[in-house]
Amino acid sequence: MDFLPSFPTLLAFAAATLLLAATPGPDMTLSISRALAQGKKAALFVVLGTSLGIVVHTMLVAFGVSALITASPTAFLILKTGGAAYLLWLAVHAIRYGSKFSVNKVEASMGTPLVNISSGFWVNLLNPKVIIFFMTFLPQFVSAGDPAVTQKLLFLGFCFIVIGMPVNAAVVFTADWLAGWLQNNKKILRGMDFTFAGVFSVFAAKILLTQAR
């Protein structure tokens, strides 16, 4: 099967992916925040959404669209402005609708699967750092002259999702396990709302400072 990389390449890719999956980012921050506010089910839908965002980025890299986006100053400016604005919206959302509500009330009003999937999807899709990361990370494991380069990039992108999802799920279950204790410590939980808001704001600033080259 031409789309399969060599076994050593696959091992190196898996090791790098595990390390990167454990690195905090806007997607992990969102899933932890949602796990604490609404429970593990809602957070797992967020993880599903972020994975769908990775599917899109994989397709973009494999077929060269990401290179076109980052080569166009206007397109890149629109992308990173939209991504930063979305993260700032999440920061405001964390403060306004965080742990000050009961878990049941949050689940009833804002915790639909579609909302959580959409949140995870957009937080990855509108992050130009993810585009740049995939443009620089995935091609390291293929040869430019390989006739099956597109298929291999697609295969590696989906491997990234398969390897990363258990890591993200483990983070969600850990956060959900702590949620019961945190619910009895409202001041700590409320402080975490502001912490998440601050982290989202920092990521928004970093996105705005991202350069295409």
* Series of secondary-structure elements, N-terminal to C-terminal: HHHHHHHHHH
The multimeric state of the shown protein is single chain
- Terminal residue distance: 35 Å
Major beta sheet summary: none
- The number of distinct β-strands equals 0
Uncertain runs:
100-109
Which class do the helix and strand fractions yield? mainly alpha
Helical stretch count? 10
Helix content: over 70%
Percent range for β-strand residues: under 5%
**What form results from the Cα inertia axes?**
globular
Q: What is the overall pLDDT average?
A: 79
Radius of gyration: 18 Å
How would you characterize the overall build of this protein?
- The protein is mostly helical.
- The longest helix is centred in the C-terminal third of the chain and has 35 residues.
- The radius of gyration is 18 Å and the shape is globular.
- About 5% of the residues have low confidence.
